[in-house]
From TrEMBL:
Recorded GO CC terms: cytoplasm
Gene Ontology terms: biological process: allantoin catabolic process; purine nucleobase catabolic process
Entries under InterPro entries matching the protein: Allantoinase, Amidohydro-rel, DHOase/Allantoinase_Hydrolase, Metal-dep_hydrolase_composite, Metal_Hydrolase
Cofactor(s) this protein requires: Zn(2+)
Stated name of the protein: allantoinase
One matching Pfam family: Amidohydro_1
EC numbers for this chain: 3.5.2.5
Length: 474
């Protein structure tokens, strides 16, 4: 028998206003019908017997959120973040699908063996659906076609080195190397780029003040992003049949470059992160290395233009770049190394809080529910080739729902977070927007104040016409 989900505030995203109605979901978790009025619901209830009716009353019921930028470090660094904890955090934040970055696991997802290790480890542990980016590094060109054929969402690379030891496992690529590789790959693929390029004359850190945030911030000026985005936009205009995606942009100085490239017909999309929209460099106290990330958090004056770019569509996606680590690499242990911004791992933990962070701040910049839907549901699904069954509530789509109260507030505390490591720059902040339930394919994977059920998430492989037989059984 079918399931019935009711709410007086159903938000489809494709219409301006809320619906007071219901959603009929089949036993296999597919949306069968959207009912748009109370009268239609009453008629259905009178004439039809449902297996279960879930009435969320005045809660907002909208499509499940999709985060395309999540570091799940299992296998190899499960203590940093594993599949179980990451997907629980996602579910508690209203996310029904997340896409794993290829960089921090051992092995990284730069080979078929690495992808097999990821998928075999994930099975039976995930509470939401999970897809994977493949990695593009200088010496794995022979693996790329196989990774794409196997169903990765696209290929992800970096134009600048990251912290050790990950840099040894996932080295940066030059724009020249990237151009040569692009010439050998089929069209209609996605290339996602961490867009910072090293400066010809690097800015030296202030070694005398390693526990001051500015000592780190000065080493990664906006010019690094400008240089990288200039290089990628040039490649995007040369390779117009390939889709380029700019990851976790922090600087508003790159926005005009992105808009110009899009106007000239390139397939280019771009994302920013909740921390760039809500945190400011001048507010970061000494030793607070949980704020360190790459690119860095910049000044408050940087933020309004980023919000405006989301409103206009210049920035397409909001994603977490969730990258927690244990206290040692984050320099959060007691002792001489505590609070050293120059040595700390650059990653922020915020996957569970993304919706609340954005909702808390967006309205002061003239943004609303439609922008959350666009940047955290619809556009992420389009980017990853999931738009035929994810990212909206419509007949034939997966019954993935985020049910939340946009008017309710809460204070962030470490004990409420599901991630493996609880350190986050949002501790003690008061946020607005509380997730009460998350539904994946009709199944309640998260309900506030209740324990998690079974890990019934699926592994998502991007559909391609060039599947390889040896990988079908992953």
């Amino acid at each position: 028998m079918d399931l019935l989900f009711l709410s007086k505030r159903i938000y489809l995203g494709t219409e301006e206003n809320f619906l007071n109605g219901g959603i009929i979901v089949s036993e296999d978790g597919i949306v069968r019908k959207v009912m748009r009025t109370p009268q239609e619901v009453n008629s259905y209830l009178y004439n039809t017997e449902s297996q279960a009716v879930f009435d969320f009353e005045n809660m907002v019921l909208m499509p499940g959120l999709i985060d395309v930028n999540v570091h799940i470090n299992e296998p190899g660094r499960k203590d940093w973040e594993g599949f179980s904890n990451a997907t629980k955090a996602a579910a508690a934040g209203g996310f029904t699908t997340i896409i794993d970055r290829p960089t921090n696991a051992v092995p990284p997802t730069t080979t078929m063996a690495g992808l097999r290790a990821k998928t075999s480890t994930a099975r039976g542990k995930i509470f939401v659906d999970v897809g994977f980016w493949g990695g593009l590094i200088p010496d794995n060109s022979e693996e790329l076609s196989s990774l794409l054929s196997a169903g990765v969402m696209g290929l992800q690379c970096s134009l600048t080195h990251t912290a050790e030891p990950v840099n040894k496992e996932f080295p940066a690529i030059t724009t020249e190397q990237l151009h040569d590789i692009l010439c050998k790959l089929d069209d209609d693929i996605v290339i996602a780029v961490h867009a910072e390029s090293a400066l010809q004359q690097p800015v030296a850190a202030n070694e005398n003040e390693p526990k001051c945030y500015e000592s780190y911030l000065r080493t990664r000026p906006s010019q690094m992003e400008i240089n990288a985005v200039q290089a990628i936009t040039e490649l995007a205009l040369k390779h117009k049949k390939k889709h380029f995606h700019l990851l976790n942009l922090s600087s508003n100085e790159v926005l005009s470059l992105i808009k110009d490239c899009k106007d000239k017909g390139a397939q280019l999309t771009a994302e920013t992160c909740p921390h760039y929209l809500s945190l400011a460099a001048e507010d970061i106290e000494d030793c607070r290395t949980e704020f360190k990330t790459q690119p860095p958090i910049r000044s408050k004056t940087n933020q309004p233009a980023l919000w405006e770019a989301i409103r206009t569509g210049c920035l397409d996606v909001i994603a977490s770049n969730h990258s927690p680590a244990t206290a040692g690499p984050k320099c959060l242990t007691y002792g001489r190394t505590r609070g050293n911004f120059l040595n700390a791992w650059p990653g922020i933990s915020s996957l569970q809080l993304g919706l609340s962070i954005i909702w808390t701040h967006c309205q002061r910049y003239g943004l609303g529910m439609q922008h959350i839907y666009k940047s955290m549901c619809e556009n992420p699904a389009l980017l990853c080739g999931l738009e035929r069954f994810k990212g909206k509530i419509a007949e034939g789509y997966d019954a993935d729902f985020c049910i939340w109260n946009p008017d309710e507030e809460f204070q962030v505390s470490p004990d409420m977070l599901q991630s493996s490591n609880k350190s986050t720059p949002y501790t003690n902040q008061r946020l607005r927007g509380v997730v009460h339930a998350t539904v994946v394919r009709g199944y309640h994977v998260y309900q506030q104040y209740e324990s998690f059920g079974q890990p019934l998430g699926k592994i998502l492989l991007r559909k391609t016409s060039k599947k390889i037989v040896k990988f079908v059984r992953i």
